[in-house]
Amino acid sequence: MALPLSNDLRERIIRFHENHDDYTQQELADEFSVSKSFIEKLLHRWRTTGSSAALPHAGGRRRTLQNHDATVQKLVAAQPDATLAELQTRIARKTRLQVSAPTLCRTLQRLRLRRKKSPRRPASNRDQR
Known about the structure:
The protein is mainly α. It has six helices and no strands.
């Protein structure tokens, strides 16, 4: 994701454009080392709103399990040694949402839920010394 250009640069481009109206949009873009599409959008925004400031971030995509944190916490507490695949199945049954393993993993990390794995076999005599 690209960061918005500074308001100072935006204002300099607008001032330059007002004083040099014989420049094409491509020449303005070349002069300030920005893309032509940026110049088009900036000038359109300036003409329609009178502002050259960047728009705020739109917020991005919502989390799939956003309203199901308590459900995920209960499922992990009930069986802390469940695999991601097992948790996916249980979440699908409870919430009717199909989530990917990476989505579930990110949710567990965000909730700071550590899954405790049960040992699959008893410790060997060598480990007990």
